[in-house]
Amino acid sequence: MAAGLVMVALATLGYTLPPPFDPSPLRADPVFRTLPAQPAAEVRPVAATGRIRTEDITVQARGTTLEATVRAPLAPGRHPALVFVQGAGPGVRDEFTTQAEWLARAGIVTLVYDKRTSGYDFRHRDFGLLADDALRVLAELRRRPDVDPARAGLWGVSEGSWVVPIAAARSGDVSFAVLVSAPNVSPMRQVSWALGEQLDRLHAPAGVRELLIRAMGAVDMNFLRHDAEPALRGTRQPVLALYGTRDPSIPFVESSQALTRALSEGGNPAYTIRYLDGADHGMRLHGGPFAPGYLETLANWVTGLPGTARPAVPIAGATPVQRFEASEVPAAPWYAGGAVLGLTLCLAAVGYVAGPVAAMVVRLRGRHLPAAANARLWPPIRLRFRRMAWTGLGLLVSVLAFIVLLVLFSVNQAGAWPAVLAGWLVIKVLAVLMLVQEVTATAAVVAALREGWRPSRPQHVAIAGVLGGTGLLLVAAAYYSLFAFPW
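-> structure tokens emitted (487 positions)
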């Protein structure tokens, strides 16, 4: 009964403490509800059969050297040129080989380069620094005798589409901008929306979303609140934005709305937005071949500039469907920040080992624990404490393993939902077990004290450490929705 009352209290605590997060259904502009078909001239066949030459070069950037590969048509004259700007991650140039070669054979000079490793990591990302890299690479490309400087631009995918507008707003040397799967909302909004979509596909319980969203609110990374619209408002060049209707990673309708709004506010009407049926985040069909019309649209638009900069139909293609808004994740309050969570875990770990360490110190000093009541009452309490420590450790490991499981299944979701439900059930059972152990261990200690037990100093340390550490873990579990109803 006591454990049930404590569980209700913790569940209530979990509902009242965290900031609310409940994305609303999206109200899209009427223009996105039924899009006209993409003009036939944009997807007309392209003869990507020309001979090309490949050249490896190096470009000096701020604090590093960028390795790059240029692919250029062997046909005489000056050609339009395109620099590929990577998305999130290591950004090696090999990932763009297929489309870079295809475009080069279609008459466009392409350059791909390895993303910098200094000044870019998982926690700290300077999009302005990456934009400077893109401009330096573009400047190297514009100096080539086979490149038409008036038609040399940047192509950015995903995270790269936050970088390209910054570069375009800084320099008129950027003749055009191609944005592929561009979020145009903050990284935090993008990730939270993608998380919701992935969990819906995995049939995950509502508590899983609450756990991950509250964990995201505690993450302190400098780039997660990046606002893309100021750079878009400063973009004066023609823009081609390509989206896939089966992209689970970005809120594509809101991304298009943000793009058109920012460009309109900046006085730039030269934009082309196209939705490709069935395309995913990388413009491919289920991670395989490129979506029909993607490469053709890209090549025809670039080679047709400046005539293709202002199409008669700015937004066209397959009609996109986005169910919910991409809401900003509220920042966690001070008591739920990453530093406090880390301190909680450290205190719990110290509490679990404090008792054995204190007992060891007593033995090393040649002292002995009182034998009378201790011999009878302490061993079962100590056993309870050990079980609590193992349960707490098991809960932490289970949560980490569950998050890894979700990441893996977000890539390949076939048959994943039973494993997701089973993993969440294990976490909930361990949380409840830890709660019951805390209550029963407290009752055992109180009962032993009533029977005349006089704990030694090491035993006092063990009692305070294990019960206190487990109590901290229970409060943290309540905040992260492990006791919430429905599950």
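The first helix runs from residue 2 to 16.
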